[in-house]
Design goal:
By secondary structure, the chain is mainly beta. About 0% of the residues lie in helices and about 55% in strands. Strands 2, 4, 5, 6, 9, 10 and 11 form a 7-stranded mixed β-sheet that branches. It is globular and about 40 Å long. The relative contact order is 0.33.
């Protein structure tokens, strides 16, 4: 079981940027796959970006080119850099590790 703690959410205007952070309780290099998911009101939770401990990344079509997922082994952190945010990016964002470990979520709100 891996505990995960997200931070960095907030309210921004259209076109602005935010960076989300996730701190896992385990050494990040030992976690095979980590991801960011989001859930908007009335919608199902969806994966937006994922990264393996080998550095392979994957993005949902809706965020490709705007979001960047990364890890910092020295700081034992995972990040989601979100640029050019749009109202449809408004959601609670969750950090995930190995598929079944979840953080508590952090709210991102984008206003026009």
């Amino acid at each position: 079981q891996v505990q995960l703690e997200e931070s960095g959410g907030g309210s921004v205007q259209v076109g602005e940027s935010l960076t989300l952070s996730c701190a896992p309780s385990a050494r990040i290099w030992r976690i095979i796959r980590m991801a960011w998911h989001r859930q908007a009101p009335g919608k199902q939770r969806e994966e937006v970006a994922a990264i393996t401990n080998g550095g392979r990344t994957k993005y949902a079509a809706a965020v490709s080119g705007r979001f960047t997922i990364s890890t910092d082994i020295r700081k034992n952190m995972m990040y989601l850099q979100m640029n050019n945010l749009q109202p449809e990016d408004t959601a609670v964002y969750y950090c995930n590790a190995e598929g079944d470990n979840w953080g508590q979520g952090t709210q991102v709100t984008v206003s026009s």
